[in-house]
Amino acid sequence: MSFRLFVWWSALWGGWGAALGWALGRLLARGDALGSTGIKGMFLGMLVALALGLVDAVWVFSLRPFWRVLPRVFVCAAVGAGGGLLGGLAGQLLYDWHSMTLLLLLGWVLTGLMVGASVGSYDLLGCWVREEELGWSVRKVLRGALGGAVGGLIGGILHRTLGDTWAVLLPGKDDLWSPSLTGFVALGLSIGLLTGVAQVVLKEAWLRVEAGFRKGRELLLSKPEFTIGRGEGCDLGLFGDPAIEKLHARLYQEDGRYLIADAGSATGTFVNDQRIAEPTLLRAGDLIRVGNAYLRFSERQKS
Predict the structure, then answer these.
(1) What is d(CA 261, CA 10) in angstroms, rounded to the nearest whole number?
(2) Cβ-proximal residues to 42 (8 Å cutoff; 6+ apart), any chain
(3) Beta carbons of 6 and 59 less than 8 angstroms apart
(4) Which helix or strand (DSSP H or E) is residue 208 part of?
(5) Which of 101, 183, 207, 199 lies closest to 148 in space, CA to CA?
(6) How many whole angstroms separate alpha carbon 24 and alpha carbon 168?
(7) Model's pTM, two decimal places?
(8) How far apart are CA 19 and CA 23, in angstroms?
(9) Torsion of CA 140, 146, 148, 150, to 10 degrees
(10) Is residue 184 a contact partner of residue 152, using CB atoms and an 8 Å limit?
(11) Do residues 299 and 203 make contact, with C-beta atoms less than 8 angstroms apart?
(12) 79 near 49, Cβ under 8 Å?
């Protein structure tokens, strides 16, 4: 999946997740405005986070057995549900305290922030449990949180605008053309879109498959070590090429720089058509060859 497709799928699935969250919230929310808003926010956050977690898992794990991505998606949904509940309650409480639209928007910003952060929450939790370096997973969480917060703000504005518009066009109506449905979809689209944009725009290093299995695929290098091969356990799976070993090469960080090392393959690993015999420093634009696949390494310029 290319970066552009990743962003569009994040927006699309975020919108569908929000629509389903609206339906569940409408079905189950009862009682006063505060409790009802909290429940609706919880379902919005849970379903949008679950949708974004699925998109991220498909992008990162592609053809791996589906059961391996279930814990990741579950953690995303749990964090998103908590964020939606807190955001809904906080926004309603603030609005009840002082009837200002800006205060209501703060609740959606909080929801978007937590939904965006949920995309990297499983990685952060895994690093903490394994006592690994937290830096890369924290950066992923922060990128998602920033994008989600901005998406929550934009979506909240659209939610309010659409609500006011429908109230004028269809006064007293509260059905499938409800302002809450269109508003929720706008929120989901905005949170998904901006979360995806933040992950892509603020990326540090990435690979693009120039030739080989799934040509055009782009992958963020968001882990301390990134494996390449035709085995299911590899981060970049290049299947169907007998010249590529199950574990062919490793790409890793050292002192803020990216290096690539061959993993003892028979056909070797090449950088700019030169076979490497030891870990080799990568620079932006370098062309990596493993078997019949060509990978372009890119890196954001550092100040």
Answers:
(1) 33
(2) 25, 81, 82, 84, 85, 88
(3) yes
(4) strand 205-211
(5) 199
(6) 26
(7) 0.79
(8) 6
(9) -160
(10) no
(11) no
(12) yes
Q: Which two tokens stand for residue 215?
A: 């040509």
The residues pairing with 225 across neighbouring beta strands, listed in sequence order, are: 252
Residue 134's φ and ψ, nearest 5 degrees, are -95, -10
CA dist., res. 19 & res. 44, Å (int):
8
Number of residues that make up the chain:
303
Can you tell me the distance from the alpha carbon of 22 to that of 16, in angstroms, rounded to the nearest whole number? 10
Largest CA distance in the chain: 73
Radius of gyration of the chain (CA): 22
Token pair 């569940």 is at which residue?
24
CB within 8 Å of 242: residues ≥ 6 apart = 291
pLDDT, one tens digit per residue, over 218-251 is 888 877 788 898 887 788 888 888 888 889 999 9
**Which amino acid type is present at position 210?**
E
- Residue type at 21 in one-letter notation: G
Long-range contacts of 208-211 (CB under 8 A, 24+ apart): 208/295, 208/296, 208/298, 209/236, 209/238, 209/293, 209/294, 209/295, 210/287, 210/294, 210/295, 210/296, 211/292, 211/293, 211/294
Q: Dump pLDDT digits (tens) for 162-211.
A: 766 666 666 555 544 444 677 788 888 888 899 889 888 888 888 999 98
CA distance 18 to 43: 8
Q: What angle do CA 194, 196, 198 make, to 5 degrees?
A: 65
